[in-house]
Records
---
Amino acid sequence: MSDIHSGSPAVQVRLATPADAPALLAVYAPYVHQSAVTFELEPPPVDEFAERIREVQAFGVWLVAEVEGTLAGYAYGGRFRARAAYGRTAETTVYLAMGREGQGIGRRLYEALKRILALQGFRTLVGGIVLPNPPSVRLHEAVGFRPIGVFHNVGNKFDQWRDVGWWELDLGPLPPDAPLPRPVSALSQSEIAEACAAIKASANRLIHLRQDIVAQDAITERNPPVSG
Ligand SMILES: CC(C)(COP(=O)(O)OP(=O)(O)OC[C@H]1O[C@@H](n2cnc3c(N)ncnc32)[C@H](O)[C@@H]1OP(=O)(O)O)[C@@H](O)C(=O)NCCC(=O)NCCS
């Protein structure tokens, strides 16, 4: 089945769970073995990969894309740095099953990722790309990331020195005393479903989403929920 508007395959985006670990690892492991797009030299064991999914979902969000029930790729926004002041910044990444490139699936995943991370209350997204990687650079810039700079010779894989370029995306203003992002489990089913169905989130739409969050937080502060 294909999307009648774009001719691209019908893609379903949903939240990942630790039970997806074997299928997600099957997407990731070939890149570890065959490419330098990741600096891991050996794929992690499946239980460690499941733990990564749990850790990311506790902080940001991990999404999977399915095409006709088959897992076609994933994207996530996880912790950028452990230090507390980085708590409103997420580092994003995306991998498609080999052979699924160039069909708009990366863009679908990233549009959904942006919306969910904005709804959670993140301020800035950052992405590191091992260079050269034109499809990844193109995808990041197509969804609004802008290039920041390049760290030279920071990696060495397959006996070759590797540069890493960094890109950032501004999710829109938040007050300086903005609360830490909400866990994805605090979002409603309809917020997640709407974000996962997003083809393209305009900057204005993201800013409106944020205004809703700020307004809701102000209401909650004025009228804290009654416990007990
Ligand atoms: C990078 C990757 C996620 C891109 O996803 P994708 O589904 O192939 O990209 P899309 O089809 O959604 O295309 C997004 C944009 O990138 C462009 N693009 C895709 N493949 C491209 C290529 N090979 N060369 C140049 N541009 C390319 C598209 O034209 C589109 O731009 P546009 O909207 O301006 O036309 C995918 O190629 C992949 O999984 N690569 C291997 C893993 C990897 O490198 N991950 C990134 C780690 S930083």
---
Amino acid sequence: MPRKKNFTLVRVIERALPDRLVSKARRAIARLGNERMRESYFTTFWLDEDARPENVIEEVVLALWKKHARVSNCAGMEWWIGRAYADRLPIEFHFDHDIKGRARRHPILSSVFFFNSVSGGQLAVTDQTPGVVEAERLETVKPRRNRYAIFAGNLFHGVLGGAKGRLRVTLVVNYWDRRPTGVPTWRESGAYRAL
Ligand SMILES: [Fe+2]
């Protein structure tokens, strides 16, 4: 069946959150220093949909969900802080999925909140879904402070490289209908206590 060509793959929201909350979250991330810097994309946390926020980043996660990504069958959010330089990206193009689970499951929605402008390092989302041989379309989103990008959780996507430049700081939030396997809450994990 031919794929639809005229819909937007990524929804982009400018000034997604109150500036004060963005600044507070940015300061909290700065307090992390170099903790798990190289593993930042693999240090993910679970937050139940009805949980109380335990730190400012979880405040941001809940605010993004309530304001911009209300999905009816959402059990909660998997979140992580992405910190990387555009010339040394730790991830290839990929599908988001339940990495430790037996069955192949994808989030309902995937999303990226940008904390700063950097050159290069665009989020790139294709229309390729699992089982489809190749992508026909690609949309890119430039990192810019307080910009929020949301896309379907089964799309093939990645980050484009660039010059070293500034550290690219993002908050990634995936919305799930069921908690992904083996993802701890922030309290359970013991990581990122400085938040
Ligand atoms: Fe991803």
---
Amino acid sequence: MTEQLKINPCTKVDPLYFMFKAKELILKERERQNQKWGEQNHSPQDWMMILQEEIGEFARAEMEHRYRGADPEPIMEELVQVAAVAMQMVECGLRNGWGGK
Ligand SMILES: [Mg+2]
């Protein structure tokens, strides 16, 4: 385990880089979603269906890569969409009194 950590290329980069890069990708996707759909105010149940649909696309991209040798890039694209939808759910919840203020 320790040996793996020593050769992990992620340890050669400031851990904050990945946090900021993830944030950048998610915010870019959020902007794309806002341009496409505008402000979305759904019930928690409807949001769960939307999120599950995105999780399904993420799972499909992973399976296509793992078992059919497809390009791995869609895995990250779909994962970012999952995170962006989850973020949008939080925004909706804040607007509509689900707590968090
Ligand atoms: Mg998707």
---
Amino acid sequence: MLALAGAPIVALALLVTLGSCDASQTKVCIVGSGIGGASAAHFLRKYSGRPQNELHIHVYERNSVVGGRMAMVDLLGDRFEAGASILHPKNLHTVHFVGLLGLKKKTSPDSETFGLWDGKKFVVRTMDGGSSFITKKIAGLINALGMLWRYGSDLFRMRSFVSQLLKRFLHFYDEGRTPYSSVKDMLESVELYGYTQHTLVRELLREGLSVQIITEIVTMITRINYGQNVSISGLAGAVSLCGSGDDLWAVEGGNWQMADGLIKLSNASLGLSDTVLSVVSKDGVYEVTSSSGKNRTCNAVIIAASLDEEKIVFSPSVDLPKRSMHHTFVTFVRGLVSRDYFGLKDAKLPDLIATLEVPGIPFISISVLKSYNATDNAYKVFSRASLSDEFLDKLFSVRRKTIRLNWAAYPQYNAPETFAPVILDGNHLYYVNSFENAASTMETSAVAAENVARLLLTRLSTDGAVFNSGLNTMAKRGSEEL
Ligand SMILES: Cc1cc2nc3c(=O)[nH]c(=O)nc-3n(C[C@H](O)[C@H](O)[C@H](O)COP(=O)(O)OP(=O)(O)OC[C@H]3O[C@@H](n4cnc5c(N)ncnc54)[C@H](O)[C@@H]3O)c2cc1C
């Protein structure tokens, strides 16, 4: 690995001698238009301060739309997030993107009820406060007391574990940070690497949490957010727990708009429905061949997609540690969940039905996305395998429309985690998604992409890169609020 601490930053203008392609322009090719690729394009443009005729950025996207795992689904006229749906208030890059792009944030409703199903009964169930302000407040208080009675101070210990890790994570936004060519070094710099080497359950037991809260609340959350149980790493687990707090938000109209806006803002060229087939390194440049049949010569290539299920041919070949992606099946249903399935005759079903890690439960969670009337809701169901019509007919008493998606969603976490290099070939082939073994979220992709953008510019340049102090101000604000 390259030791980059304190490496001089060189003006891109001096880079023009790199390789044998057009000497007046540096060309960076980015594979993938998800939040990782879009952030890479944005930060390259921003930090280099160079226009397109000096730094040409091209983004390849095999789909006909941008956004990758930020995608929407249309369910009988209403559009819902099909992939990445929620963001944390301390996700400072994405918070910043939304402001920069003039997008609107929407926050999750705070009146959701939830039930924790063990296959036979609800082991935990919160009550609904109805529509009045007063009854809502009373129900909120009773629900909080109920949780306190069941889990006691473990709730605070769980929160404190998450806060400690979040505080360290916020150092990724510090001004003038060294760019890293290894995820291990990057995580070590903020004292988070150790948490990728042990399981979440081990870390939480060390913090003094009881087995009960771990097997119930924590497991419920890791199942919903990563489809996996508490044997994921401590860091992925803490990130997952962050996705269950207050003030979570999403972009009104769809999170994919962040990718769309950033690519446009960076003035990159974009090739939709164009799959990269091979990247061949020769004479200090890269020849990128894609399904459009057009070859492109680039000084640097950034892979902003998970390579685990991809068929890109690299020459010379690249060596990656084996990683499998966890497949999450998302089923959208417009209709009504059957009370009979849950053995409830009259009581209202919770808005979110989550499940314990118990063999034989075919789904992970069911949540109400929108309620139209007493017998008509839009639902999102997560599961680890495709749900058959036969099962869905038992789960739903009414089913007007069903849409099934199968996502290669996030890595199958397996502590101790090993990480692919950020620089795949020792030259200028970069890999944003090596960071996904630490955690897979929209924000972590943006953080990894920002690191790659700085690393690339640092390695290509000899003076004068522009760093924006705005991020530092946001990071300070974030830490102070914790
Ligand atoms: C169901 C689900 C729920 C999730 N929930 C959340 C959540 O609530 N909050 C959160 O923060 N995160 C969530 N995530 C995780 C989050 O979606 C990802 O971590 C993040 O979006 C990854 O972004 P990326 O840009 O790194 O990768 P991607 O979004 O996967 O983008 C990679 C892009 O590269 C393209 N591509 C791949 N190969 C090629 C090729 N050869 N040529 C051209 N293009 C190519 C792909 O089509 C894709 O568009 C969820 C994910 C899933 C699937």
